[in-house]
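Long-time lurker. I teach an intro course on protein structure, and each term I like to show students one example going from raw sequence to a predicted 3D structure in token notation. This year I'd like something fresh instead of my usual example. Would anyone be willing to generate the tokens for the chain below so I can use it in lecture? Attribution to the forum is fine with me.
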Amino acid sequence: MGKRILLIDGDQTMSEAINTTLGSAGHRVQVETSGADALEVFSRDPYAFDLIVMDMGLPDISGLLLAEKLLKLRAHIPIVLLAGPEGQAQAKARDSGIRWFSIKPVSMTDLIETVEKALAGVE
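-- Reply from a regular --
Happy to contribute to a lecture. Here you go:
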């Protein structure tokens, strides 16, 4: 059975592509295009989702700051961060508890693999 995924990405085209890909894999996806909206949805019921897929660069808040806020609401929710190549931002994300990354430009095949690993708790 598919899992419930909160997708947070300010890029409409990318959100639609990821939503379609995850939906085709059997997951139920809720798309939010702003960090503020995503935080509001998640704070209403942090256990409504099994996984979060989110972009590092959101239009209204740093992806890293949003991830920290989400993790305060539910400490062990798996988060897949869509980010650029390994660097300082990813190191900070790892320090915040994020263990899964999908490197931009995002390959949908790699994203599905990363999502499945995150859902299984495998790094």
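Some talking points for your students: The beta strands are 4-8, 28-32, 51-55, 79-83, 100-103. DSSP finds five helices and five strands in the chain.
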